[in-house]
Please model this.
Amino acid sequence: MKKLVLITLMSLQTIAVSAQQDPYLWLEEVDGVKAMEFVKTNNTKTFDQLKKNTKYSQLYNQSLTIINSKARIVYPSVTGEYVYNFWQDDQHVRGIWRRMLKSNYDKGATQWETLLDVDALANKEGKKWVFHGATPLYPGNGLYLISLSNGGGDANEIREFDVRTQQFVPNGITFPEAKSNIQYVDENTLLVATDFGPGTLTTSGYPKNVKLWKRGTPLSEAKVLLEGDPTDVFNSGTVYRDNDKSYIIINKSLSFYTRKLYWYSNQELRAIPLPEDATLEGIKFGKALVQLKSDWEINQKIYTQGSLLAIDFEGLMQGNFAIDVLFKPTAVESLESVVTTKKWVVINVLNNVKSEVFLLGKGKDKWYQTKVSAPAFGTINIVSANRESDDFYFTFENFLEPTSLYEFSAQNTTPKKVQGLPAFFEADKYQVEQYMARSTDGKEVPYFIISSKSTVRNGKNPTLLYGYGGFEVSMQPFYSGAMGALWLEQGGIYVLANIRGGGEFGPAWHQAGLKEKRQIVYDDFTAIAKDLIQRNITSPEHLGIMGGSNGGLLMGVAFTQHPELYNAVVCQVPLLDMQRYNKLLAGASWMGEYGNPDLPEEWKYIQNYSPYQNVKKGMKYPEVFFMTSTRDDRVHPGHARKMAAKMQDMGYKIYYYENVEGGHGGSSTNEQRAQWNALQYTYLLEKLKSN
Model:
């Protein structure tokens, strides 16, 4: 026992010492003078290198034209009788929030009522405001909570806005910048989870406590519904509305994937008896809509992982489990999303990485299912559902078919195409194929490849492999005018990986890559790269890879473990120092995905792949392009900064670009987005395309 304690203490000491010896910790000072000099110097070097390429201006102009296109889809958000929309273009760089009657929108009208001009507000207040959405009071009387971020980070300032007067409400509700969750219960009552002062945030930097606050009273006197623990992730409250009935549900987030749910009713907070890893997708017809992330045995019956259940809510709270199975996935299916309308539960299902939509209705004695006759062989996203009617809007897209917006109406069950993007490249010249690569454990992992029909498999094709592999996020077919015009039409091939860690095939596909099993995610990605080479589609000289956030970590692991496979790496807003990730910004919230590096038994497997600890001198690494944002308050820019500096000091040439605003998305304005696109595709063409 003494020996075990001694080993543990020595391991902890090793971790502490190695962190203290990091000579690049100064780059974690987000706005530090020395750190910003590093950013400015490297930005200038990258601009000087890439902008001298004649392709840069062409790619920038093409990208900006696509992004600013007036023919873009006007995405609807329906509340009551109005459609609301946020719009950015060359005249509205930071954007306008606007509305029109739904009846006019459905007729194709173009005359909008501008509610909030974010450019004018930013100029007036001297802030780099980024619009992050509007939450309505329901039933609506014109009041909204507007979220504004200064620079595009996750932290928002909240202000109350009245669409009837087109003004912020004088002496209305306001909350200072924080990573908050705030919702109306009614006009004078709000659920508030925010930074209430010292000791009220979790170690992840999110709210620990949830309060019920009455307008006009001091926030300090608000009723505390939940006082969480520092180790929680993000505690919050949600108002679920089921026709005329409302349910106040409090979420105590134990980890990124587990939670305890409570129902606040009659001045009492009561625990909801559900598995901690199950998710509450809504409440409809008095039924809790619950998605299972693992098998659940109740009343001597096993309900399988990935299923959607309807459980009588009142009975559930009394310990009586009246359960209907609404969806049970096959081996190639997963539940992507659930929304509710006036009388439907609408589910979006992935079937072998292709979308299908079903309507679930409640009969007198049982549920029934109807498949929506949506387009096939692509990706569907439900963009707006109105609980006051059975109409909803969804988009359909695939790699070669521009995104189209459809409306499903209760009066016409065949979806009606409302709008569609123009084609930004000649899709007829290209083809989409789906292949399987065999990973190290024998599992077959799918990927999509988009290439010219005239492609010759000679190993010389410039090929870009994109991956993510985490957090149960599915990589689905998508239409990108920028990717098509800036990459495919330049002679490139695009590949999308469906590796484990994602959600393409349900919870098990994700859980296969958690914590100590993480290496299989990277092995899957490597298997696809090798399969592309084996098929003679490309070769290491012409193969590049790209990924962001968790996908940025994937990039770091890929080039440190297999530098021989790649000639270009675009590593965007990445995690890279996995020894300190849980100490930086929201990093602690992801320990459910990666593990806790402060625990020796978990650091033991994390250290085997952490890019920052595994980069070495004397290797033949590709010239990596690191891209990040100063204002990213989710993944700390210090990850990219430190890795870039360390590699430079080892003698490696790298590219580095840090946008000074933009948050985790990297960019705030269309000009910044076009610049981001032009930089990365210029780099890729330089590295991968034969002269």
User: Anything to note?
Assistant: The mean pLDDT is 94. Residues 277-328 form one domain. Residues 341 and 387 are 4 Å apart (CA to CA).
